[in-house]
Amino acid sequence: MNVVISATVQRGARAASKNVPYQLPLLIPQFPELKNIYRATINMRLDRPLLISKFERTTFIKWWDVDVGRAGFWHPERFSILPIGFEYPIDAPTKEAWLFVSYDSRSFLLAQTTSGRFSFQEVEVVTEKIDGLEYGRRCKIHVEITDAIDVG
């Protein structure tokens, strides 16, 4: 069953636009479907939480972190992806996209619960380049509900 969740595009910390170009060359061998995405994430706040008990696709890489204000270093981190449809603007054709979960990100840390499931209210999405993307605009994600994925 497919479910649609409304959301609002929001400003992120801009860390992904710096980090994703370093992460992707290491992630694409594990997640080849990401080879044509734009090299940044779209941050959004979901109207209803996306509940995930287990990701089907997870990998571990060490990527070169060049955080501003300090010397670069190798950063070990887990990543998961979840295929979704992304509708922006609303009523536009749905684009192929992926929920992009970096386990050291703010959105992942906020999603952790004591029940063992992740409750994502804030998410990062990767897809093709979208011209004219604006903060505060409404959008939708389309998610396939499974035994491991539900909506709150």
Question: How would you describe this protein?
Answer:
The structure is a single chain. The protein has about 150 residues and is mainly beta. The protein has a single domain (about 1-150), classed as Beta Barrel (Elongation Factor Tu (Ef-tu), domain 3). The chain is about 10% helix and about 45% strand. The protein has two helices and eight strands, in the order βαββββαβββ. The chain has helices spanning about 15-25, 105-110, and strands at about 1-10, 40-50, 55-65, 75-85, 95-100, 120-125, 140-145, 150. It has a six-stranded antiparallel barrel. β3 (about 55-65) and β4 (about 75-85) form a beta hairpin. The protein starts with a strand and ends with a strand. The model has no long low-confidence stretch (mean pLDDT about 95).
